[in-house]
Specification:
It comes from Picocystis salinarum. In the C-terminal section; belongs to the DHPS family. This protein is an alpha/beta fold. It is built from 19 helices and 19 strands.
């Protein structure tokens, strides 16, 4: 076998590796996902964990360049270190990585082998060329915050401080990841990310609303040829984002209308919402009110696409992230091809195909069984890398009233927060198998989806605790939380207001509770009132008083 540091490499078993990803030229996020897909397709790697995405300011010799996008993955390989390095560098070459620039200079894609099991391997120098040098662990891993932060997320909860993490097992990198997490904590850890002028920020693969994220360091939403991704991805900050609801359905529970599908009517409403303070617009052509019957993808697209096209190409709405509310893969795929930035899936990947037996299976087996999802595949394969909202839901709209009884007993026994948090983690692990990476995700606890009034209230009361039950997926735990309580039936039960349109004030009160519970984005019907409520809530709960930045 190949000799490296005096050790002969025979590869009868798999070895765990940690790989850091970076880039600031072109579209780094697309480059990341394309490279990982290529490596998995060739059998080079099998990715088991991914970190969140981070944007970092340049360090080193070249400071006058675009900010970087960074991440890390944990994977298994059967290749020896030299062969693996050659494969990583081949993917960099595929991304048109140039190697004649200064150290730390601009690049389309950087794939650094940080850890190879628990081995220390040194041979040759970088100048010797691909496949002829190796230095693992990476010589600068302890110095680079933009490497340490993603690495710290790759350690499983049960490994943190465990014997497995302490033992010198050659073929797992748990020990090295434990060291990386401790080093990250020594440097300040999460506190570093919260500093106003922090050189490192955690981001989600969602376009930043054009008003910025409350810190004043976000560039306008434009896909520049250099560093477009890193400049324009959303970093949850001190200001709660408002997502305006645009229902394109005649039978929506609160604002259905015979004109709802007219493109000009939708466009006028969209402009009014943005003027009133909406940061994001969410278009939905499939009613999800309890008891409603689903329509097929063809009919949903007939309702959706004319309006979506008008909104996406309207000059007044330029830079506003556009979300499509759907649980059908064909609709999501078509919407992404048209340019939608977010897929808001109320089914959490489980409602396509439109097969009632699937919902029955979800109830009768493990309620969140990792079934194949055509929705996850559709979003993963979209060329524009849209963000994806993973919602906690276990039922079709037509069955919600029946299914909420079963979910109520489970939540009453265990409490709503562990049920929701742990279920979403299981779904994220399943989605990763379909190559939908967690760094693309936002999450929604699913108010009103197969949950009765008592459960919704308990969930709202304990909203801030859900993340504690997401330890099984650090990227999800750190992802933005989107909530939708606007005009929901449980608010009507509390207030006695039977007409959903009369529940806006109650919705704003619930919104404030959501912000107190850590919500990053609120999905609302009455944008103007919600915007005002969110600003007050931010001033109280997030310390954000300079609202006109």
């Amino acid at each position: 076998g190949n000799w490296c540091g005096g050790m002969a490499w025979r590869n009868p078993t798999l070895v765990e590796v940690a790989i850091a990803l970076g880039g600031n030229v072109g579209s780094p996020l697309v480059a990341f996902e394309s490279a990982l897909a290529g490596l998995e397709r060739k059998g080079v790697l099998h990715v088991s964990h991914t970190s969140s995405l981070y944007r970092s300011k340049p360090v080193g010799q070249v400071l006058d360049q675009p900010i970087f996008l960074n991440a890390a993955v944990r994977a298994t390989t059967s290749l020896d270190p030299h062969a693996l390095m050659r494969e990583l560098q081949a993917e960099e070459d595929e991304a048109r990585r140039t190697r004649d620039g200064p150290i730390g200079g601009p690049r389309t894609l950087d794939l650094d082998l940080v850890f190879y099991g628990n081995h220390n391997l040194v041979q040759g120098e970088p100048k010797d060329g691909p496949g002829k040098w190796i230095h693992v662990p990476h010589p600068r891993w302890k110095e680079r915050e933009f490497v340490l932060a993603p690495l710290a997320e790759l350690l499983d909860k049960e490994e943190d401080g465990s014997e497995r993490c302490q033992e010198s097992q050659e073929r797992t990198c748990a020990k090295m990841l434990g060291r990386a997490k401790r080093r990250w904590t020594e440097l300040g850890g999460e506190k570093l990310l919260r500093e106003k002028d922090a050189p490192l920020r955690r981001v989600c693969a969602m376009k930043t609303p054009r008003c910025g994220d409350g810190y004043g360091d976000v560039h306008p939403v434009q896909n520049s040829s250099i560093g477009g991704d890193a400049h324009t991805l959303y970093a949850p900050g001190a200001r709660t984002m408002v997502m305006g609801i645009l229902n394109l359905t005649p039978d929506s529970f609160s604002d259905g209308s015979s004109r709802a599908m007219e493109p000009q009517y939708v466009l006028d409403n969209a402009r009014r919402m943005v003027e009133a303070g909406a940061d994001i617009l969410d278009l939905g052509a499939q009613s999800t009110r309890p008891g409603s019957q689903p329509i097929d993808a063809e009919e949903e697209l007939q309702r959706l696409m004319p309006a979506l096209d008008r909104v996406l190409h309207d000059e007044e709405l330029k830079g506003v992230p556009i979300s499509v509310d759907t649980f059908l893969a064909q609709v999501a795929r078509t919407a992404c091809d048209a340019g939608a930035h977010i897929i808001n899936d109320v089914g959490g990947g489980a409602l396509d195909p439109l097969d009632p037996l699937l919902a029955t299976d979800l109830r009768n087996q493990d309620q969140d069984a990792p079934l194949p999802s055509s929705m996850w595949e559709a979003v993963a394969q979209a060329e524009n890398c849209p963000a994806y909202v993973m919602t906690h839901s276990r039922s079709y709209p037509s069955r919600m009233m029946q299914d909420q009884r079963a979910l109520h007993y489970e939540m009453k026994a265990e409490g709503p927060t562990p049920v929701v948090g742990e279920a979403l983690v299981r779904k994220v692990h399943s989605a990763l198998k379909g190559k939908l990476y967690p760094w693309r995700m936002l999450w929604d606890p699913g108010f009103g989806f197969a949950k009765d009034s008592d459960t919704n209230l308990a969930l709202l009361r304990n909203l801030g605790h859900i993340r504690k039950h997401m330890e099984g997926s650090k990227p999800l735990q750190n992802a933005p939380m989107l909530v939708g309580v606007s005009r929901k039936a449980f608010l009507g039960k509390i207030t006695g207001l039977t007409n959903p349109k009369d529940r806006d004030l109650a919705s704003h009160a619930a919104l404030v509770a959501c912000v107190a519970g850590g919500a990053d984005i609120v999905r609302v019907h009455d944008v103007r009132g919600a915007w005002a409520a969110a600003r007050v809530a931010d001033a109280v709960w997030k310390g954000e008083t300079n609202i006109l930045k």
